[in-house]
Each structure stands twice: as C-alpha cells, then as structure tokens.
C-alpha cells in the first residue's frame, strides 16, 4: 500500500458516519470526467497522485507499465517494460516514484518529471515485491518469498551503495501468508503498518501489524487477527496524524479504526457499500467506497459508491455513485482511491464486473459539501378576528437533519403594510418546528412569510400562509334600481357610503346590455357619504358602486339595473 501524502494533516477525530446521515440532502453525484486506460484490472494495481507535477500514476501489473494522467484524467505519458508494476510510493519531494516490480524481483525508481526509469534495485532472487512505503529513512516493501508466504524487506538508499535487507518480519515469522500491504505517514516517520487479506471467512481473518522502524530495523509492536478485524480486508490507511489506522472490510460492510499504538479497536461505523477502498487526504478528509448494498444488505449489481467525510465529522458530506448500466465501468477497484495532496480532487479506479478495461475517474472538489434542500411549511387558521391573538406554526424540513439551533425570520404583509412588517426571528426546535403568536391589527388577507437563511449544510428557503382576518361590515347603496328612462336621458345616480375606518373612496361602473363594464367615476364621498354620477342612457344598463375597503372596513358593492325606452321615430 503506497504513501499518498506529502504533508502532515490534521488528526481525525471521527472518521465515518452512517449512510443514513449522508442521504439526505443531496443526491449522489457522478464523476466529473472518466478515461479508459486500456489496461486490464488487477488486485495488485495501485494509484498515486503527484501534487508537484499534477499527475496521477496508475500501475498495471498485467500491462507491465505505469500510466501517467493529468488532473483532468487525460493520459499524458507513461513508462513501459516494467514487469509486474504493482505498489507505488512517492518521495517526499515528489521527484521520484518507487514502483514494486513483482515479476522482476526489483523496485524501480522513476523520475516524475521526465517519466524515465533512473534506477532498479534488485530485491533478491525469487522474491516478488508488491507493495512499498517510505518510513524511518528507508523504502520498505512487502514481498512474497520463494516457495510461498510473505515478509517485509527494506531498501536503504541513504548509504554510498543501496542495500536490501529481507526477512524484516522475523519477530512474527509465519504471520504473512502473502505479500503484506504497507502504509505510513510523514507525521510519524518511524511508523509502519502492514496488513494482508488472509481468508474469506471469519475463521480465517485478515492480519494487521504495527512496526516501529525508527531505528532502521522493523520492531514488531502489535498484531491483530480476529473477528473484529474482519476476513476480507482489502484496503487500509494510516490517519495523517498516525494515531489510527482505518480498515475497509467488504465482507463486514463496515469501516473500522484501530489505534496504531496497540491496535485496540477505537471506532466502527456502518458503510453504504461493501468497502474495498479507502484514502485519507492530508487535511484529514476521508474517502471510502465499494460496491453498493441493497436495503437488505445484499448486492445486486447496482454499481459502486464513494462517500466523502470531512475531518472531525460523523456524517458524509458528499457521495459519488458509479451506477451499473451507465455505459462506464462501475466497480470500484481494490485500493482504487487517491486524493490530490491539496484535496482539490479525488481519483478513483473502476472496472467493468463483466470484463473490460480500467477506468480513471476524476471527482472535483470532493469534500466540498453540497447543501441539502429545505422546505418550509406554514400553518395558520383559515380565518381570524381582527385584534385577537392567533397562532402561526410550521416546520423547516430537510432530508439532512439539523445539527444545531436555528431561527426563522418572519414578515407580516397586510392592507395596512403591503411592503411587509418584520415580526423578528423565532427559534427552531431540535426537530425543525417553530411556533409564534401575533395579533393582527388590520383585517382582510394577512400573509405570514417565514424565511430560513440556511447554514453550512442547508440551503435557504421561504414559505408562507395567509389568513382572512375579519373587518367591520360596510354599508353601500346605489339608487335608481328598477327605474325606466327615455332614450338619451342623462340620468344621475348617487352612491351612499356608510361609516368606515379611513377609506372614503367609491367607484361607480356602467355596463350597457351587450357591452363591457366601464368606470364612470371614482372619488371621495362628500360629508353626507354621497358620490353622484351622470350617465347618458341609450341601452338598458347595470350600474355598480364598489368600495375597496380598508384595514378595518370590509369591501362592499351594490348594483342598480335601469331600463331605457326605445327611441321614438
């Protein structure tokens, strides 16, 4: 297992959360780009990101080469004729890429600027090195021994002449049945973690071990191989601060963390997929994924998912799905995740479960939270009395639960204040509900608008509801109803408005038979409450007096129908 970090990150307080917490808010995203690498997938392949040259290196044991791509996933070069190219590790200055050559009993050093092999270091006849890691000033490698079994070796490049030491796991002889994978972190130079998938059942669990290599030799500190570690461990990573190691167990469907001091269990969380790949960015962001599970815990070729967790949080902030049937490779590869050192991108290797080539997927801004949508429901009485208290209730809904106290801002709009009046902020309960009371001073349609400003995880939203508030009944009468007039008569009609609060304006309309209604006059009634209009009659006509009402007086209408006698010839 390679070193994929070039700087010291922050400690990981909590690494993973349940998928039910992720849900929520935003639907899983797709990769921003994907590239067919035209090499067959292999369990020994690896992926490493060079932040200095902004390149992604993918090893192909079956193709005997290294593929180099840029940050957009475009293949920009490669190195060929390196048999069994497997695990990789990048030097601290990103100048050299070390590659285990399992089919050549050697480790190759590659110049990352020129993409040329600058050296090959023989690891011993019959050895098959598969994994490399830098720790304690040496390059450590996990290898298969001649005749079977695995062990750990060390390549010392510090002296005048490079030297190789084998059988460094002698303190735990016989523990490794295959070439162990390796992981380390720059934060703790003397820490080396080794692991190997041993069996496919809990009776043959995987093996995890911690070594202290600060002295230059591998001193066995701790070892674990039990039911809690799991049977099918396919990837593990050391946290940037070196305190924990995170394990992906596809058979258990869990991510588990163990202390690197003694491999004691520290945390365990459900996974949304049969986990087979994990990587941790220098800033502590965690990416973990695997084949999707059904709701019953089974798998039915749904594809893969990668969940992304920010450091110190217990829920995923992003999810990326590689669905089966989207025309691209859908299965996340073992060890198939790698962060860019600046955490700006996450790179994933996927393959087609029915055969085909390896695909490199690029996920941009993977740790940038996608805010969850919200919806506000507001409930008010259907009607209410003016000057009487009424209750407004509701809730702010989101698929992603709210984690802290929140408030909503409320505005009331009515006839007296059409521009709206602020009613201040009101608290949200832990479940997102709100409640407040108000005493409307104006009648008519009163609208309460509730606004949620959003937070780091939720988008803003607005909801509203209206209540009809009572007003005093208004008296309005228009004379002349039922009268008959001679053709061409200029008749006068008077509208009388009773007592109102403020508005004293009345409008009178006329609608001749077969015609449209037209405004005749709008004006303020006189001191007696009257407004008169004169209208020339040529047809039967309906006159309507209309009062719009005000904050306390209800609207009113009255109509008069008059007839017009035919013109005499």
Structure commentary:
With 569 residues, the chain is mainly beta. The termini are far apart. Mean pLDDT is 87; it is low at 1-26.
Q: How are the secondary structure elements laid out?
A:
Elements: H1 19-22, E1 33-36, E2 47-50, E3 55-60, E4 65-70, E5 75-80, E6 85-90, E7 96-101, E8 106-111, E9 116-122, E10 128-135, E11 138-144, E12 150-156, E13 163-165, E14 181-183, E15 191-196, E16 207-212, E17 219-224, E18 235-238, E19 244-249, E20 254-259, E21 265-270, E22 273-280, E23 286-292, E24 303-309, E25 316-323, E26 331-339, E27 345-351, E28 358-364, E29 375-379, E30 383-384, E31 390-397, E32 406-413, E33 421-428, E34 433-438, E35 444-452, E36 461-469, E37 476-478, E38 484-485, E39 490-497, E40 505-512, E41 518-524, E42 530-536, E43 541-547, E44 556-564
Question: Which structural traits does this protein have?
Answer:
mainly beta, 569 residues, 44 strands
**What is the gyration radius calculated from CA atoms?**
38 Å
Level of helix content? under 10%
Placed side by side, the strands forming the largest sheet appear as 30-36-35-32-33
Please outline the major beta sheet.
5 strands, mixed
> Treating each run of at least 4 consecutive H or I residues as one helix, how many helices?
1
Mean pLDDT over all positions: 87
Structural class: mainly beta
The beta-strand count equals 44
Shape: elongated
Compute the separation of the termini in Å: 112 Å
Q: Are there runs of 5+ residues with pLDDT below 50, and where?
A: 1-26
